[in-house]
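Please fill in the sequence for the structure shown.

STRUCTURE ENCODING:
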């Protein structure tokens, strides 16, 4: 089973991940402006697709359109219900050049959208049109990273199915460039203090308006150069950090206020799917137990599954 999980070295894909992160911000902001608002900013996220990352269907006055990153043929696809589609190559190019070409395509389709044209949750937040820094896109490394997202996505989907309360989709937030799934207790939470760079406080407070237990996969950054899984809850009970979780390689960061497990530990284990599920289950139980969540929110779907 672990042969399906690609080995990842941050230094190999860091440049490609960094530029794709900024490109997804541009595409995600298009979805943000065209979609009706969904609670906790669910309307802004992207999704893992059989080809790469996609917006899914976005409403427009003319019908529906979709924008999809294809990491097999390394193209950005534009598809609509009202016109012939188009595509542009994914290649080493500046953020400014990518931004200009994307909006040329939208103008060609008659899709009118005005975005806040600078990154969120990153520093420095250089406006897209002004970001002429040379960027490197390595097709093989980006495809390898996306293949890891596929493996993670499948386990996250199974984990999501084990909960009958309110739960987010498995979705890619382009702000921090992480794949996440979030469960809700159903109770309101204390007002969030904010703190993310270049993120409006009111957005953070709406996102964390209710109690959550959230888990995700993050490819890493220059300050944290390794891909990891994380799990946290808000609000965070004092006893949360003291709970023993699985596997043994998982650890709690007092600085970050969340549990971490390295991607390498999951990928190199005898059964990566089971190893990751143990992390997701045990960290959720840590949040639910210390936060006094209703145990009836968990759901045993196995008896309904077809054999």
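FILLED IN BY: designer on duty
SEQUENCE:
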């Amino acid at each position: 089973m672990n042969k399906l999980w690609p080995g990842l070295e941050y230094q190999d894909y860091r440049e490609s991940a960094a530029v794709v992160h900024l490109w997804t911000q541009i595409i995600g902001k298009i979805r943000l402006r065209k979609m009706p608002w969904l609670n906790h900013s669910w309307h802004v996220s992207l999704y893992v697709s059989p080809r790469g990352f996609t917006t899914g269907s976005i409403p427009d006055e003319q019908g529906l359109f979709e924008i999809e990153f294809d990491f097999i043929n390394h193209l950005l696809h534009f598809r609509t219900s009202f016109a012939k589609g188009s595509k542009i190559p994914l290649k080493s190019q500046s953020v400014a050049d990518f931004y200009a070409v994307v909006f040329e395509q939208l103008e060609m389709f008659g899709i009118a959208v005005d975005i806040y044209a600078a990154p969120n949750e990153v520093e420095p937040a250089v406006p897209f049109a002004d970001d002429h820094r040379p960027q490197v896109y390595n097709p093989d490394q980006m495809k390898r990273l996306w293949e890891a997202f596929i493996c993670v996505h499948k386990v996250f989907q199974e984990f999501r199915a084990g909960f009958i309360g309110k739960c987010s989709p498995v979705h890619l937030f382009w702000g921090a460039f992480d794949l996440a799934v979030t469960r809700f207790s159903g109770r309101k939470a204390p007002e969030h203090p904010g703190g993310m760079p270049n993120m409006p406080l009111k957005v953070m407070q709406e996102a964390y308006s209710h109690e959550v237990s959230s888990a995700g996969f993050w490819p890493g950054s220059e300050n944290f150069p390794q891909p990891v899984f994380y799990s946290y809850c808000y609000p965070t009970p004092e006893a949360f950090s003291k709970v023993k979780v699985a596997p043994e390689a998982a650890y709690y960061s007092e600085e970050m206020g969340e549990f971490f497990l390295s991607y390498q530990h999951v990928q190199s284990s005898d059964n990566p799917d089971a190893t990751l599920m143990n992390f997701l289950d045990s960290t959720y139980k840590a949040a639910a137990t210390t936060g006094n969540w209703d145990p009836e929110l968990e759901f045993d779907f196995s008896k309904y599954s077809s054999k």
